[in-house]
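Progress report, Aim 2. The chain analyzed during this reporting quarter is listed below.
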Amino acid sequence: MKTKVFIDGSEGTTGLRIYERFAERDDIELLKINPEYRKSPDERKKLINQSDITFLCLPDVAARESVSLVENDNVVIIDTSTAHRTEEGWAYGFPELSKKHKEKIINGKRIAVPGCYASGFISLVYPLVAGGILPKDYPVTSFALSGYSGAGKKTIAVYENEDRPRAFSAGREYALTQQHKHLKEMQKITGLARTPLFSPIIDDYYSGMVVSVPIFTDMLAKKESVISLLNYYREYYKESNFIEVSESDDPIAESGFLAGNEKAGWDGLKIYVTGNEERIVLSSQFDNLGKGASGAAIECMNLVLGCEETKGLQL
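Predicted structure tokens for the chain:
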């Protein structure tokens, strides 16, 4: 029997990517809403409760409304918005972090997919805090580079307009007030005692991102090196199908450049550790629409269904 899936918000970038990835799957029956009624609570309510799994690809307020429409106790909600990522009763959709995270997803009815920047940040910081390498009170900073596809329809339209303002042809730093919406989950999920300082940059390419965390080795719990941290990450993620750790002689790292669009179209995440004895930079490179959004959502669905977790994904 096919799994009935409804995508609430299938017109947005994340929803469209999820929809596209189901095109060749013979185990999924997509419940489609008439475009005229896509904002109708009654029509959405009907389809949500007819589904086995509903993906929410909506703004936060609309995502909360959709959850309130659930009457069928068997429906699994996989929410890609910011709305529920730090709320009690919701599984955080990053199964590679620990066995506990994975079990909560497998057994959960409410799953919150991580934010794109948060995925890159947490993939680097969570293992170090969990292993006692990075003190919880460490003053963590992070900078990141992303394509414009995660910025929403209006911003995408500006980037793809031939008459766009000159500023859109260069990288633009934003979240200057340190109020980025991913900061809450970045701190809570990793267990850090203080909110990270986060500086993201949006640039003139469609998708892909690099998230980096610089650290001073003398502020860690014990002396670490580029090699020791690479080995630590490799051991930590050894059972993961989605997280790859670079070798010490990785040609991309040795080139001295990490491109934001290098992993566009890929559903995994690659970790790099670069630097020297005193200062190290931890970096994650992935697709903001892959492991940072729709790919992660489908990975969670696969775990719920008990099928191969990589099914329908690009690895």
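The two ends are 27 Å apart (CA to CA). The first strand starts at residue 3 and ends at 8. These observations will guide the mutagenesis work planned for the next reporting period.
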